[in-house]
Structures are given as structure tokens and as C-alpha cells.
TrEMBL record:
<dbReference type="GO" id="GO:0051537">
    <property type="term" value="F:2 iron, 2 sulfur cluster binding"/>
</dbReference>
<keyword id="KW-0408">Iron</keyword>
<dbReference type="InterPro" id="IPR052371">
    <property type="entry name" value="BFD-associated_ferredoxin"/>
</dbReference>
<dbReference type="Pfam" id="PF04324">
    <property type="entry name" value="Fer2_BFD"/>
</dbReference>
<dbReference type="InterPro" id="IPR007419">
    <property type="entry name" value="BFD-like_2Fe2S-bd_dom"/>
</dbReference>
<keyword id="KW-0249">Electron transport</keyword>
<keyword id="KW-0411">Iron-sulfur</keyword>
<dbReference type="GO" id="GO:0046872">
    <property type="term" value="F:metal ion binding"/>
</dbReference>
<dbReference type="InterPro" id="IPR041854">
    <property type="entry name" value="BFD-like_2Fe2S-bd_dom_sf"/>
</dbReference>
<keyword id="KW-0813">Transport</keyword>
<keyword id="KW-0001">2Fe-2S</keyword>
<keyword id="KW-0479">Metal-binding</keyword>
<comment type="similarity">
    <text>Belongs to the Bfd family.</text>
</comment>
<feature type="domain" description="BFD-like [2Fe-2S]-binding">
    <location>
        <begin position="3"/>
        <end position="51"/>
    </location>
</feature>
<protein>
    <recommendedName>
        <fullName>Bacterioferritin-associated ferredoxin</fullName>
    </recommendedName>
</protein>
Length: 58
């Protein structure tokens, strides 16, 4: 599923960036451009980051 339509970034790609150390929406954007187009996906990026942080803390 696409998270960012503007840059064609999938949820799997975002999860990979989180696993590789991206810890903010800006950090993800620096890696793949997500969130740097229209900005509609920024909230979704933050949700994925929160879930990623919870799953790694468990």
C-alpha cells in the first residue's frame, strides 16, 4: 500500500527506513522524499513511526 502517492513510497519502504534508523518523518523524507510533496502523508508517517517505536521497545 502506498503511504506517499507523490513520491510512490510504500508502507514496506517506510518500515525499512524505520528499521535502518529513521526516527522522524523528516528523516524518512530525507531518505525517500515521502512527506515532502503535498504533505498529506505526514500523519501516516508519524503513525508508522509510533508503531515502529512500540514494536522495538517490546
Amino acid at each position: 500500500m502506498f503511504v506517499c502517492i507523490c513520491k510512490a513510497v510504500t508502507e514496506d519502504e517506510v518500515h525499512e527506513h524505520c528499521a535502518d534508523g529513521a526516527d522522524s518523518a523528516d528523516a524518512i523524507g530525507e531518505r525517500c522524499g515521502a512527506g515532502w510533496g503535498c504533505g498529506t502523508c505526514v500523519d501516516r508517517l508519524k503513525e508508522i513511526l509510533e508503531r515502529s517505536a512500540v514494536s522495538t521497545a517490546a
